[in-house]
Specification:
This protein has 205 residues and is α/β, with parallel strands linked by helices. The protein has one domain: Rossmann fold, CATH 3.40.50.1360. The protein is 27% helix and 19% strand. A six-stranded parallel sheet has the order 4-2-1-5-8-9. β1, α2 and β2 form a beta-alpha-beta unit. The longest helix is centred in the first third of the chain and has 11 residues. It is globular and about 40 Å long. The structure holds the ligand O=C1O[C@H](COP(=O)(O)O)[C@@H](O)[C@H](O)[C@H]1O. Ligand LXAUTJHC binds next to loops. Belongs to the glucosamine/galactosamine-6-phosphate isomerase family. 6-phosphogluconolactonase subfamily. InterPro entries: 6-phosphogluconolactonase_DevB (IPR005900), 6PGL (IPR039104), Glc/Gal-6P_isomerase (IPR006148), NagB/RpiA_transferase-like (IPR037171).
């Protein structure tokens, strides 16, 4: 990951990375603090955010701040304004983020149900080419039910993605990816972006 960052910085003088939330990437974010890189060139975005007040410990940006962002001097942190609720938050977020500039790297997680970011199987993923960058999510099966998520269309405008997974509970979801199911946002995304998968489990996929 640092190699990807440093290559982007050498070539373009900036590194645009999208961070996922949840629990899985916390150890990675903590380890990154001691990485050798020019942090002043890092621009931070988030795959999704839970509609909770700013500073709530269940928010994805709170985790990333505690683990990494409060400890390194990055150029910019573009949080998603989920404290405004899904509809108003999406309107504000889309005034600040459009679909044009590619991300250098997207970090993704996977839920046991196969969701990534806050794109859950069976809901709208914003996969159409005219979909806005940020979409409201109202009925997330995983709490909290209200969220903001980068759309599939926005995530697809990325140079590469890393999918991180830990634990045996996610093995069925990972195995499902190999079946190219139409009902998987990760499979759809992988049709546009190279996705490298890193997983830790007691069995192989
Ligand atoms: O709710 C979310 O879930 C996924 C997976 O989280 P994890 O706790 O199982 O690692 C995460 O990627 C996403 O950002 C988050 O909002």
């Amino acid at each position: 990951m640092l190699e990807t960052a440093n290559t982007a910085i050498n070539q373009a003088q900036r590194f645009r990375i999208v961070l996922s939330g949840g629990t899985t990437p916390k150890a990675l974010y903590t380890a990154l603090r001691s990485g050798t890189t020019d942090w002043s060139k890092w621009e931070i975005y988030f795959t999704d955010e839970r509609c909770l007040p700013t500073g709530d410990s269940e928010r994805n940006d709170f985790m990333a701040q505690q683990a990494l962002l409060n400890h390194v001097p990055v150029a910019a942190v573009h949080t998603l304004p989920a404290e405004l609720g899904p509809e108003n938050g999406a309107i504000q977020a889309n005034q600040q983020l459009d679909n044009t500039t590619p991300f250098d790297l997207v970090l993704l997680g996977i839920g046991e149900d196969g969701h990534t970011a806050s794109l859950f199987p069976g809901i709208n993923w914003g996969k159409e080419q005219n979909s806005p960058a940020v979409i409201p999510v109202h009925n997330s099966p995983k709490p909290p039910p209200q969220r903001l998520s980068l759309s599939l269309n926005r995530l697809a405008n990325s140079h590469q993605a890393l999918l991180l997974s830990t634990g045996d509970a996610k093995l069925p979801a990972l195995r499902g990816l190999a079946k190219s199911e139409d009902n998987s946002p990760l499979v759809k995304l992988a049709q546009h972006v190279p996705v490298q998968v890193y997983y830790q489990a007691t069995q192989s996929v």
